[in-house]
Amino acid sequence: MEEFPKPPFERILFVCCNEREPGEDACANRGSAELQKKLKDYMKSKDLKGRCRISRAMCLGQCAVGPNVCVYPENVWYHHVTEKDLGEIQRRWIDSMCS
Questions:
Q1: Alpha-carbon distance 56 to 2, whole Å?
Q2: Which of 34, 58, 71, 89 has the lowest CB atom count within 10 Å?
């Protein structure tokens, strides 16, 4: 095993897309896949590919309060994320990389 000489991305936003049976607590059952797609499309529109990654997480262990998004390396977590919240997440974590 070898360690990367430097992290491959400056920032990663993990969007929980865990799936369970209908009616069970799961981020995917609350639309997280669409949130992840919108964040990824937005990041690409800012030409940050290779610097920022929007990644699907299979389970962040917090599905009861999902959809969840966590930001690394800052270790900031959001829960109950809706489409209305994406603007704030984009401004704070994606747009901030453009300056």
A1: 24
A2: 58
